């Protein structure tokens, strides 16, 4: 922990300042700035520290400027070389916060697709209120096994991870058991496009729409669909999951983002509310009519 009030090189940092301040990049820059100050305190130039660590000097510059994320071993080597070992644990903890926030798919999927599904099962078990917005595909908790298989196969094509698709599908379907727990509440908001995108064969999509109709009748599940004719005042830029008031999960092509800052959670809560209550967002019978019309489209 930084000594005293948390001063390092004349700049005050409150104790336990969260690393993910407003974005992943800002967090990486913050970590790099702290490491730069340790180098400065030790009165080493970039090239001198690189020589001590036997690293390319470009690696030092990239880390300090937030263009490369150091590993825990990098941080411990850096603090040892700059005679600042007492800061190592704090900096490693900050790195772990960054890795929590920005979990790259290549690293997450290395143990297999099933492993990630098991991690989500643990997170879901702790969550009581789910608010989910998806503009492109069916949320995992609502998927049929056939639809889930196509989603995992698409992931496999991108990341070359196909060895345990059957196990991943089975684990995802087992996760859906929480939909039937009365103490859990779910509010899903989908765009009408999710009912129409050609992400799987028509027969698979018809089964998926039938499943959606069935789940929409559960007493603890609220399903809203934003029709094509709705005028948005907040663009449906990307999907996200709000888990209680503790975490926002966002999937990008490269990583799963986990946001835990109160202001970020509050922001996504407001965005979800605007999408969920937009004039023309359909619920109950109207939502089921949209699903039925989409099924007719897939049947032609």
From TrEMBL:
<dbReference type="InterPro" id="IPR001387">
    <property type="entry name" value="Cro/C1-type_HTH"/>
</dbReference>
<dbReference type="InterPro" id="IPR010982">
    <property type="entry name" value="Lambda_DNA-bd_dom_sf"/>
</dbReference>
<dbReference type="Pfam" id="PF13560">
    <property type="entry name" value="HTH_31"/>
</dbReference>
<feature type="domain" description="HTH cro/C1-type">
    <location>
        <begin position="35"/>
        <end position="91"/>
    </location>
</feature>
<protein>
    <submittedName>
        <fullName>Helix-turn-helix domain-containing protein</fullName>
    </submittedName>
</protein>
<dbReference type="GO" id="GO:0003677">
    <property type="term" value="F:DNA binding"/>
</dbReference>
<dbReference type="Pfam" id="PF19054">
    <property type="entry name" value="DUF5753"/>
</dbReference>
<feature type="region of interest" description="Disordered">
    <location>
        <begin position="1"/>
        <end position="21"/>
    </location>
</feature>
<dbReference type="InterPro" id="IPR043917">
    <property type="entry name" value="DUF5753"/>
</dbReference>
